[in-house]
Design brief:
Blueprint (H helix, E strand, L loop, with lengths): L1 H16 L11 H10 L2 H9 L14 H8 L5 H6 L14 H8 L2 H8 L16 H7 L3 H9 L14 H7 L3 H9 L4
Helix pairs in contact: 2-3, 2-4, 4-6, 6-7, 6-8, 7-9, 8-9, 8-10, 9-11, 10-11
Length: 186
């Protein structure tokens, strides 16, 4: 009941003046972030239909797709990409939505992005890490498995030459070591 009431209030706000979030430089970033918070494909379609730009970047370079990936909004991700969000757009730190989904360990979001041609070999700016490196560092074995099953390179190296397997061994992450070795890490 409480969720239904909140949802109805949200819809009421749309009809009585949420237009501010759809105008100006933000061009809907706020409204699409709200759709991601609710993991609502319906709201994402509604806001894009009202003029929200799914590819708009904030000052940090993040798009609504970055936000959806970090939150694990796997129902919103396909809508944003279908409506024009660039799946491999990079924020100011060089991270893609896939980096953020892997970092947060959101397997359905990782899968949704990889199914829509997210490039698992893109490297962020600071450590030159791939999404797979980040999933290992953050100790998310299921995200590691999802990335590998969708084609991530188990032997990619970050700026210091470390592979995901090296990191997993150094951190003594037995479950991740097994997954990496099952997928050809050496």
């Amino acid at each position: 009941m409480k969720k239904t009431r909140r949802f109805l209030i949200l819809l009421l706000l749309v009809y009585i003046g949420l237009w501010f979030a759809l105008s100006g430089t933000g061009a809907g970033r706020v409204s699409l972030q709200l759709a991601a918070q609710k993991n609502s494909a319906f709201l994402a379609r509604l806001f894009v239909g009202l003029g929200a730009n799914p590819g708009v970047k904030g000052e940090d370079g993040m798009t609504p797709l970055h936000f959806a990936a970090y939150l694990g909004a796997d129902q919103v991700i396909p809508v944003l990409i279908e409506k024009g969000a660039a799946v491999n757009a990079r924020d100011n730190e060089g991270r893609t939505a896939l980096h953020l989904a892997a970092y947060a360990g959101h397997v359905p979001a990782v899968t949704a992005l990889m199914d829509r041609r997210a490039d698992p070999e893109v490297r962020e700016n600071q450590g030159k890490m791939t999404a797979l490196h980040l999933a290992v560092v953050q100790k998310h074995p299921q995200a590691v498995r999802a990335l590998l099953e969708k084609g991530a390179n188990p032997n990619s190296r970050e700026k210091n030459g470390y592979t995901p397997l090296f990191i997993a061994e150094h951190e003594e992450l037995a479950d991740i070591i097994v997954v990496l070795e099952e997928h050809g890490a050496g």
